[in-house]
Amino acid sequence: MSAATDRDGVLAVLIVGAGFSGIAMAIRCRQAGIGPITLIEKGSGIGGTWRENTYPGAACDVPSHLYSLSFAPKADWSRLYAKQPEIESYLQDVADEHGLMPLIRFGTTLRRAAWDEARSLWRAETDKGEILARAIVSGAGGLHHPSFPNIPGRENFAGSSFHTAAWDHSVDLTGRKVGVIGTGASAIQVVPELAGRAGHLTVFQRTPPWIMPKNDRPIPQERKDRYARFPLTRLLERWRLFWRLEFPALVGFTRVSKVTDQAEAMARHHLRKAVPDRALREKLTPRYRFGCKRVLLSDDYYPALQRPDVTLETGSIARIRADGVEMADGTVHALDALVFATGFDVLGGSLRTEIVGREGRRLSEAWSDGMQAFQGITVAGFPNYFIMLGPNTGIGHNSIIAMIEIQAAHILTCLKALMKGRDAIEVREPVQARFVDRIRNRMKKSIWQAGGCTSWYLDPKGRNTTLWPDSVLAYRRSARRARLSDYRLR
């Protein structure tokens, strides 16, 4: 693998996706002199999740100075929690500053990738032609294929209907009867934006979320100036935020513990303070342990639900009709528009692209017993193939950007080994098996499997194949430097 030539038309690294993961990996490759590289992006621009999700109120629930790449800081974030346009703009600026734009092929979708054993390379089939690469890094992520609930009659609805991840900005919801199905992370951001704008808003809740105050506010100009003039102050703020979020994981957040009891008490206090009405408060009180589902942050969701033009519906939906939503008790909510705030198909999205490894084995076959990868990054039987934000690398307590940077460092170690005259690097199957067994054993006692809920974190067999069951520091110790003894090098 040469840093200066494209030998026989073969790339050193093909990176899939131009969101946080793809951009971080591309920058690290260039800094290490690994090339030539190319990024392919199915969309028309930079941003990944932050390009796709443009619904009203879309914002991050991790503090801005922590939700950014450590090697590409931004001193002038406008708010404690940045909104979608500012994050998308940040990623565009990072790509520009690091000279990535000429390396990106926009509007290019990876359809299939197959390992060529004879030549020790990947043949990537895109909708724009074939690309040959020594290694592939998948930075596609899992939060870009909308998931819809299995409710009869969805196709019969006569009004406007769309998912939050594919918001139709041509539809004016002002003064109309609007329904929102779902009460997850997207819903608690979009509901306050629609309340007061819609003529009447009906929120269909299946399970209430645990909600904590967000305390979002603009960052004063003098503080932005100080961060710009004295970078150390910005770095200290980043570390303060990291440790504030990391500490709960170190003392028991990821399992049922005294921390769980304390957090539930704080969340209930927030609910009592925000919602005086006892009947409504009862509907909004979760019946599972704090942290079992994603914990949400909001200052305006509870107030929105108490408006006279907003209805919280907690009954079971029987079907969707042309004119609205019919409940199991026969009640009909007449609607002009229906918004699905129902999350993403993480497992199905990971398998939409056919990946064929050694001896014709497909990734879908390797994952027939659940998604699994060594450190969430490499899969036995798939040489020179790396996944960012793969199985069991999501987190519910800190910034996912920290996990991305750890994975980029791990992958970089492997790519450097390939540069030293090697043809292929592949995780040893026993190493992967031991890692997966350890993770699954940890998960049995985790809050996500012992907390009394069902969530999108779980696969069809009830196993959590999505989240990391420990702290960011533990993952850093485990994964930041790839031990080549865990790999087969040819």
Describe the protein.
The chain has 15 helices and 20 strands. It is α/β, with parallel strands linked by helices and 490 residues long. The strands form five sheets. Strands 1, 2, 3, 4, 5, 6, 17 and 18 form an eight-stranded mixed beta sheet that branches. It has a five-stranded parallel beta sheet with strand order 7-16-8-9-12, covered by helices on one side. A hairpin with a 4-residue loop joins strand 14 (324-327) and strand 15. Helix 12 (400-419) runs parallel beside helix 15. It is globular and about 70 Å long. Mean pLDDT is 94; it is low at 1-5.
Chart the SSEs and their pairings.
Blueprint: E1 10-16, H1 20-31, E2 37-41, H2 49-52, H3 84-97, E3 104-106, E4 110-116, E5 121-126, E6 129-138, E7 160-163, E8 177-181, H4 187-194, E9 200-204, E10 211-212, H5 221-229, H6 231-251, H7 258-274, H8 278-283, E11 296-297, H9 301-305, E12 310-313, E13 317-321, E14 324-327, E15 332-334, E16 337-340, H10 346-350, E17 354-356, H11 363-366, E18 385-387, H12 400-419, E19 425-427, H13 429-444, H14 447-450, H15 472-479, E20 487-489
Parallel strand pairs: 1-2, 1-6, 2-3, 4-17, 6-18, 7-16, 8-9, 8-16, 9-12, 10-11
Antiparallel strand pairs: 4-5, 5-6, 13-14, 14-15, 19-20
Helix pairs in contact: 1-12, 5-6, 12-15
